[in-house]
């Protein structure tokens, strides 16, 4: 008899959620994780809770409060003398947020009777896992099923090797103990824009170098244009079509070389953040040796229900590719747990929401106009600016808009794209509507409270058929 019904490797959002769901379904479950916090103690939650989603949002909120007091508070009749930022205190607050949530996962494991095991896991059989504890001791456990949820790590580029001092990855950028006077960022994706925003709001002169010629190429391009314009107003100097060719450290500064349409360029900064994406974390796992297929980009290959080529071994989250989003990984973990238990669970990848937590936020779900044009799909669009929203006017931030793309014949919602305050919350209405195969007319006929930001979604839905009321 096996030691466990399920062993989950990795306690990030995909892994810990999978473990809890397995336990809820009556399976004896263990979750193995090797993450150690700066004090050398076990810290559940993976990248997201420890050095990703959560700490970055903590710093984004702190920096936004400071920026608001500097730039916008006076318009509300609020004045403050001798405004200052205490970076050390801000970092302590961030650490406390992280600590509370990571410890919370431990409490959830206890509540659901998930066995938490500290150490590095290695597959030594399709039903065996070897665990190396921090002290070097080893044990081997048997199991009926294995769920790999080892996540991802920051991608590195040879032309800008990190030194964890002046050239850092996203983890290092979350731990600065002072505000750099000049900050360079390689990559204008979600990570680069969010981290660049944090330190720009606190006073850094931020330059972002993006190799692609288009800003936020995966987003609706009208939304992307608005976002780029607003971020430029906020002080982010974004260079598109800028391919970095080298980065060297001398005299306590970083010299960055890059090429753009004007030729060879040079940038001097005090700190450089390398934010060029993430790669799957399979090092030391022993997956390939066991017969699990790994593609040329390093991702574990799985079928539609996230089972690998080896019977009884599944993989979920960042390690299998697709949208590298915590919520996508969590839902995959739930699906796999339920299928192991005999249920016929599935999940829709067409309605996975995306969010970039700049200010204002960028959020979308479904298809863009660019994608629909390429596919030859006839569509219609409704849009509504937050400038015409009473709630946005009262709030004091009217930047951005809501755009809804619907099928020209059936009126089914194909995509919703938002740039504006609380876009991360507003997008959920669109996700629900699309999950229930709703139409733009369904949203247009749904009563929205007044005054709310959500009325912008309502008005955009009305606009699909040319009957917007307030714009």
From TrEMBL:
Active site residues according to the UniProt entry: 450
Subcellular compartments: Cytoplasm
Primary subcellular site in the record, as a coarse category: cytoplasm
Enzyme Commission number: 1.8.1.4
Domain of life: Bacteria
Binding note for cofactor: Binds 1 FAD per subunit.
Disulfide bonds: 48-53
Gene Ontology biological process terms in this record: 2-oxoglutarate metabolic process
Keyword terms, alphabetized: Cytoplasm, Disulfide bond, FAD, Flavoprotein, NAD, Nucleotide-binding, Oxidoreductase, Redox-active center
UniProt-recorded name of the protein: Dihydrolipoyl dehydrogenase
Organism, scientific name: Candidatus Thiomargarita nelsonii
